[in-house]
Amino acid sequence: MALIEKLQRRIIDLGLLPRLIASLPRLSLVCAMVGICWLTVFIPMEGQYRRTYISENALMPSQAYSYFRETEWNILRGYRTQVQLLQSVGPHQRNEEISAWLQEFGVKTATFVNEEGKETLYGILNAPRGDGTEAMVLAAPWFNGDDEANIGGTALTISLARFFNRWPVWSKNIILVFSEDANATLRSWVEAYHTSLDLTGGSIESAVVLDYPGANDFFKYVEIYYAGLNGELPNLDMVNIAVHITEHEGMKVSLNGIPEEQLDQDDFYSKLKTLMRGVKFMALAGARKVYGNEAFSGWRIQSITLRARGEEGPFDITTFGRIPEAIFRSVNNLLEKFHQSFFFYLLLAPRYFVSIATYLPAAIALSVSFTLASLNNLLNNSYSSASLLSLYNIWGLLALSVALAISYIIAQLLAYAQHPQLLVLSSFVVSFIPILLKNVKIMAPFAYRCRAFAYLYLSIILTSLLVVNFALAFSIGTLAFPMTLVKNSVTSKLRLKNCLLLLLSNPFISIWIFGNLVDDQLGGIQMFYGFISAWKNLGCWTWFIICIGWLPAWLLVAYSSIATSSISIVDESQIEAVKHKKTL
Amino acid sequence: MFSRELQVVVACLGSRFGVSLVFPLLQQQLDKSVEFSTPVTSYRSLEEGVFLLRNDFPVYSGGVVHHAPLLVVLMSALGNSALTSLLYACADALIAYQLIAMTRCFPKSKIPAWVPGALYVINPLVLLSSVSKSSVVFTNLAITTALLSAMQKRTLVAAAAIAMAGYLSLYPLLLLVPIFSLLPQEKLKVTFICLIVLSGLLLSSYKINNDDWNYLFSTYGVISTFSKIIPNLGLWWYFFVELFEMFIPFFKAVFNLFVVSCIIPFSLRFHDQPFYAFVLCLGWITLTKSYPTLGDGGFLLSFVPFFQPLYGYFRYSVISTLLFIHVIVLSPIFYHLWVDLGSGNSNFFYAISLVYALAVSTVLVDLVWAMLRIEYDNGTPNLNLKLTSI
């Protein structure tokens, strides 16, 4: 205790607190830099990441011999030829045909038609052992994310089902799903499975989506996609067994579609690239191309997509089939749920990861930097002594609620009348508010309080996103950071600077620029449609968070950057307080 | 000025009743959240009790209802939901009115009388708690009634109200101790009346409950033995999830002692500031009770405006504000991660309930420090003098 007392006296003697308060803008900047560097420089460095390991011993990937080999190839080819023929008929007829094949070897089938009228065929292979309260899903969308016909994937799923059926080892039901696409149709089936379907097979533990476009027999390597919607990830064990099995069969693994030529690299930059690619996939999940595993987010289902790449290569389609076979054998071994410890991770390579405690400081530092910026606007000006219930605070809070209401209306309006061009254009115009409204003046304390509330609000949003959706918290924090550098527009130079900062930190302009820079799929205005359709069809919150979390803060800062007139505080309570102090 | 106070009370009534009418589904949503509803306060279990009572089933043998029998009878007499909403709104408006009346008991106070009432009305925690129809509202009403009547030296009402509060949720009975210092001449009388009223309530409950004492365990037993292990913002449920069976009785005893432990010391030390001692004890119960809700926390915060002369001494006000904001934002998120998504675990939510406890305790510590400082300065704030608290 004496030590702490000494420390406190020392801090007061040195006048550390006033100095810290004076340097708040610098501290805020430093915090943001630390946050960004933490993820991009520190984590990919040797010694910061760990090698992955299977945390649940029962999984035992590739411990049993895989039997899906050349003997099944003929059956698979037969189904594939038939599936190719079915390309020309309508979905309903096609599903009836496949349903008949499945029923031949004892699969119970049913079709689900969603609100848009798209059909999903699914079948349940009941477990010969166990009580049938748990299930594993094998899904093959008829058309994959690239709109290619998933001929290999569907044929493989049917022949795997036939193969599984001959085996007495299953203690969990196996559900086969053939949806029209990997996007909204699959999602609506998953939702219906948990709410309204009659034919069900217990709670789904895991889901594997097979994506093998084309009718080619051979392929080169395997891509694994794992990022779910709203920042959800499958248990790391699920990804680990998939990677382990694939590499055990001799194939190369590419996480999140890393190009083939980069697969052999193992240096700082390749790790950084894989890491940032994972963050990008998490942040933009739903808005980008959807691979199928996203559809299972939100129901405690560990789901991944396996995708075969390359038209020719050393591996045949049965090798690809052995991956789901071994994954199903592994998951089948599970007696409990997947282990608790690995739901939050970032992968730097198929076999390297960092867990939450290591990467979370990056987003925390960004959130703290916004809090510091808020304190700076509260304390570092002549209006800091205004009392808690002064008019400026109440006005600031009111302005925040108005900004929230406007943002909410914009979010709703845009979901119905989809005109993102108009949105970007108006954001562009509003960013020039400091120059456009040259002659309008607001009172300086309002400007400070507005900014303080804006930064505090954004900081709280970022904090609440930290654990739920780290990638989104990090991206919003980074992209919105220029906002904190806005100052009161006193000179014309400052005015121009504020305009540029506002332009950079506007949610729509900034994600538009950034999206076009980092992702070739989200060209032009396309990404807004992606976000909105993800919100409407997939239940992905990203668009809503951008509108409700980021936009109000930006609106407040834009408002505060109108030219200000400084006033002396004439708050009555303030004068009274001063008098009160004097009399004492 | 009278009109301003009336406006506050009407605003309270209107906002509670209006929100219940405009968002009828909000009540169920809030009642499902662990922050605003616990097994002993939730409206769902109260409705269950009403259903059982109306159909002549034994109310307390199912282990679902943990409300006092008289409350169940009152609710079953009211019947339709608009009427119950109005009852909750009226109870809350009455609390707001009593807060205003309390301010008038401090003639030297600098804040206008309507301010504490208005702050109570706009406090979102209290608003949501009232909309969720948590029975905390009635306990709080009994507590404010007791405090106000004790300040106005109406012994009978004060003692009866404390008995009522204890009858509804057990722990407020401890507030009898600080009431003694508010009514120093009539300790015996207060005890006596309180005992009579309490036994009257218990006996009539016994009669209503078909001559069966089993309601005692379902109501007070559950509160004091923590036997419903359901996550809440309190400090203790986690222990009973994690502990070995054989240690549990010991910890039950310790946690109950813990609730009692600080009541008498607070009342003795701040004997000369009985109102302040009462609020401290209330804070202590909020911090250590077995099934707290955010409604309790919001109620405690409504008493802070009364201590306006102490504001200068508060050292953690920014920290406690930030803590409260973060608890309110993060606790539903962490609960969602744990229970809905399954990616988090119970530690996530318990960590947040620890942060909540920290928030409440920073408020308490700040209050205690401020009062001790003003005593040191002989009643006139001397903010320039710096003292270390350690």
From TrEMBL, chain A:
Signal peptide: none annotated. It holds the Pfam family Gaa1. One of its GO terms (biological process) is attachment of GPI anchor to protein. The chain crosses the membrane at residues 20-43, 342-372, 392-415, 422-440, 452-479, 500-518, 538-559. One of its GO terms (cellular component) is GPI-anchor transamidase complex. InterPro entries: Gaa1. Keywords: Membrane, Transmembrane, Transmembrane helix. Coiled coil: none annotated. This is LAFE_0H09472g1_1.
Automatic annotation (TrEMBL), chain B:
Pfam families: PIG-U. It is a multi-pass membrane protein. It is found in: Endoplasmic reticulum membrane. GO terms for cellular component: GPI-anchor transamidase complex. The chain crosses the membrane at residues 70-100, 155-182, 188-208, 220-240, 246-268, 275-294, 314-335, 347-372. One of its GO terms (biological process) is attachment of GPI anchor to protein. Keywords: Endoplasmic reticulum, GPI-anchor biosynthesis, Membrane, Transmembrane, Transmembrane helix. This is LAFE_0H17370g1_1. It comes from Lachancea fermentati.
